[in-house]
Amino acid sequence: MAKSKARAKRRPNIIVRLLRETVAELRKVNWPTRQEATQLTLLVLLVIFIMSSLLGVLDFLFSKLFGFIVTLG
Question: Is-above-0.85 flag for pTM?
Fold first, then answer.
């Protein structure tokens, strides 16, 4: 019985400690500037557009090739 009370008392301390450590770590983070964040976002969107276009073209070509092979058989 005494152990369960001790554990119950420790739980809030663990949660509070976790939150304090989390806040302390977030203060250490070197956050990007607005300009850096905008540039990186645009770069990611550009790469996504290029890769999706490439995959779309490859999908189209393979579907035409598969259709051609099926009509031969």
Answer: no
